[in-house]
Amino acid sequence: MKRNQSPCIDVCDFSGPKGWCLGCGRTREECQTWKGMKPYDKNTLQKALKKRMVKIKTLHSEKD
């Protein structure tokens, strides 16, 4: 796997909390700025995305 590869999984549904994508957890703005981000910022965002995805999955499972 390439370092700092985009977390996108081609779902692109921004109906999560705070406008987060249900596929990768990023906001539209984070998706647009991903390629221009410095490696440190990408790593920081990747860590935040892990937490966001847990929250998204928890909220989604509560709906079912």
From TrEMBL:
Listed InterPro entries: DUF1289 (IPR010710)
Pfam families in the cross-refs: DUF1289
Protein name as annotated: DUF1289 domain-containing protein
